[in-house]
Amino acid sequence: MKYLWNLMLAVTLSGCASMGDIEDPQSALNTPKSFGAVDTGWHRPSPHWWERYHDAGLNALIDQALAQSPDIRLAQIRVSQAAAVADQAGAEHGPNVDGNARATRKRYAEQYDVGAPLAGHYGSTYVLGVEARYTFDFWGRQRAALKVALGETAARQAEVQDAKILLTSQIAESWFELSRLLEVKKLAENALELRTQTLRIVESRVKAGLDTEVERWQAEGDLPATERDIAELDEQIGLQRNTLAALAGLPMNALADAVPDLEPTQGTFLPPFIPAELIGQRADVVAARWRVEAATQGIEIAKADFYPNINLHAFAGLARQDLSVGLSDWLDAGSRTYSIEPAISLPIFDAGRLRAHLKERVSDLDVAVETYNHVLLTAVRDAANQMVSLGALEPQLQAQERVLTTRRTAFDLAKRQYASGLTNYLTVLNAQNALLQARKQQADIRSRALVLDAELNRALGGGFDTSNSTMHFTGKSS
């Protein structure tokens, strides 16, 4: 046996296939700073950032969505699938032990199988025992395979968080849009009332002979146009409620009476620069990084295939071969049998299969690295865009307040002058339309402020923290 082991070791050291001149990976990982992000020490968004709007309906809707959204459940199932693969890879580290029971009935040939007394007769062979198999992981193939599986599991865990962050952001933005539509509808209803009042003034002036029927028909024509606008808004509100129900995995009529009750926030505090530490911890960036680590271990698997594979197969049990076997025969010491079978397989010639496989794994790593770089660049741009838009929004809000003040003053003045006969109806109509448009624009800007606030929280990671992850690249679950 000692001679056999020495021979196997010598063959192992001399029989490895050559990796030749296979090139190393060409791609290099970028960092958030590579794309303009800066270490700022900026605070991480709260994992429940939507609670800052103090809307109980929004909070309840997001809780329901996180609990029963099909997208979230699908992502969690994928984690379970990856974890099962990791369990299988981890099981390869240990020996396999199987019970074995065999019974064979046959006719023994006179010139081949056995001698007397079985030769030329029928007999039975019985074997009871235990088999153990173990593969030595000298080259780290099994360890690398486990790390690949753990890496994929960790990446999918991050993707669950990314799906949750995206879902909460989508629900919040849809909720803000519903709030905007309801506010615009209220403005349209106010416009209908305002135009009704204007029509009464026109009718009184027509009776007094101060205006003609032309002005009256113009004023009356504004009423059905406004009613049409209200009907269109009702349609948009219904569609928006259906969108929210679908995002949360609820029946389509579940939110038929939903009305947002948002409290104004204290404003969004913009970081002075793009926070590198938060970009690097975004769930999508973390998932891409874990896949780079998994692809790195994939190369180690491919390299290990170039080396010999050494297995050990052992058997111990009881065996009988006779014309008849009784229970007492199994207690006889002569029934005992055992064996040990070390085996080695050497990759000597495979027509380039191993080299091609290693090249493929190297290319896989390059793809994973460039995918990570793309995700990282997209994340930096995402945060930069939200910061630019939010930075430009405050001046827009201030300017719109001034616009609304002037439009309101102009309409009040035109209405008084018209009632006094100092101007015509066209002046009133133009001032009225300008005021209504200014009110709608203000509602739009306020809604966009909420949307951009939510988008900035999402772009900065949505509160995802890698320190809370249950999987790290240590080769085991933590």
From TrEMBL:
It is a lipid-anchor. Keywords: Lipoprotein, Membrane, Palmitate, Signal, Transmembrane, Transmembrane beta strand. Pfam families: OEP. InterPro entries: MdtP/NodT-like (IPR010131), OMP_efflux (IPR003423). Residues 1-19 form the signal peptide. It comes from the Bacteria. Its main location: membrane. The keyword Lyase does not apply. PROSITE patterns: PROKAR_LIPOPROTEIN. It is found in: Cell outer membrane; Membrane. PANTHER family: MULTIDRUG RESISTANCE OUTER MEMBRANE PROTEIN MDTP-RELATED (PTHR30203:SF20), OUTER MEMBRANE CATION EFFLUX PROTEIN (PTHR30203). Belongs to the outer membrane factor (OMF) (TC 1.B.17) family. Could be involved in resistance to puromycin, acriflavine and tetraphenylarsonium chloride. This is Efflux transporter outer membrane subunit.
